[in-house]
Design a protein that fits this description.
Elements lengths: L7 H17 L9 H5 L3 H8 L5 H24 L4 E5 L6 H4 L8 E6 L1 H13 L8 E5 L7 H7 L8 E5 L8 H12 L5 E7 L7 H17 L9 H10 L3 E7 H8 L13 E7 L1
Parallel strand pairs: 1-2, 1-4, 2-3, 4-5
Antiparallel strand pairs: 5-7, 6-7
The structure holds S-adenosylmethionine.
């Protein structure tokens, strides 16, 4: 990320969520705040969605990973978890849509300080008030100790927590990923849902060209894909951090489960996965 500037990819993902509302009627992830928080009109969002014939694949994956995370999170709340941590929150609106408000849960949104400040401005401009259960924790995963920052914000290390970490792992160094996993695994009965990316060979040919273009675009934005993993590699890393009950959901599974809800879904295979792991 450019120093002092918010994440550009957070904006791109928010546009995909908004496009999902407009084109697919939020059928995977219904988000009444997606357009509002963005502050753009439908025309701009549609232009973004139609920029590339394969953009529908990104829209599917963006909506599906949140659906998977939020479903797992709901089950965790049913089991008694009351602390939710959204790592690298970007313009994620779960805290605004929180269906568990009556259960006294706390939602910690952790993000890069510049992205978090920008989100605050977006919310203020859209006249969306911060809900009482939301606690903002500015953190740079590459420099800061996420645990220290969370505890300073009131997070209870001795109580279980559910972490979501969507669209973040590919942008972090392996060191920062390892430190964050270390912290999550220090919380008894913690759970995490995150997504990761395989090396380019795992993408179908037409997707590989898009991956190449995105890589160049990200380079210019100073937000690069720094870490890619093979499925066996990610499972080994999680196990080495003491996670078990690892569910790795491949792009094929996502496309077969959620693809029919995406209008004009382009054919193609992406080396993208969503993982749900328990400690
Ligand atoms: C692709 S966006 C995803 C945002 C959000 N999770 C979503 O799905 O809409 C990546 C997010 O990771 C955050 N991020 C990237 N590198 C970071 C770092 N070193 N420290 C803290 N946050 C970081 C960015 O600020 C941004 O919010």
């Amino acid at each position: 990320m450019k120093p002092g500037e918010p994440s550009r990819t957070a904006l791109m993902i928010a546009r995909q969520r908004a496009a999902h509302q407009v084109l697919d009627h939020g059928s995977i992830l219904y988000d009444p705040f997606a357009m509002k928080i963005l502050g753009e009109d439908e025309k701009g969002v549609l232009q973004f969605a139609n920029q590339h014939s394969l953009a529908s694949i990104g829209r599917l994956f963006t909506a599906a990973r949140s659906r998977i995370a939020e479903d797992a999170l709901s089950k965790a709340v049913e089991r008694g978890i009351r602390q939710i941590v959204i790592l690298g929150a970007g313009l994620d609106t779960f805290a605004l849509r929180n269906p568990h408000g009556a259960r006294q849960i706390r939602i910690y949104e952790v993000d890069h300080p510049a992205t978090q400040a920008w989100k605050g401005q977006r919310l203020a401009e859209a006249q969306i008030a911060l809900p009482p259960w939301l606690i903002l924790v500015p953190v740079d995963f590459e420099r800061d100790d996420v645990g220290e920052k969370l505890v300073a914000a009131g997070f209870q290390q001795n109580s279980p927590a559910f972490f979501t970490w969507l669209g973040v792992v590919p942008y972090l160094t392996r060191d920062a990923i390892g430190r964050t996993l270390d912290y999550m695994s220090s919380i008894q009965n913690s759970e995490v849902v995150f997504d990761y990316m395989e090396p380019p060979q795992a993408f179908s040919e037409e997707m590989r060209q898009l991956v190449k273009e995105r890589t160049e675009q990200l380079e210019k934005m100073d937000e690069r894909w720094a870490s890619r993993f093979e499925p066996a590699g990610i499972a080994a890393i999680l196990r080495s951090h003491g996670f078990s009950g690892i569910e790795d959901i491949s792009f094929e599974e996502i496309a077969s489960r959620f693809g029919p809800a995406v209008q004009g879904l382009a054919p193609g295979h992406a080396g993208l996965h969503v993982v749900h792991a328990k400690h």
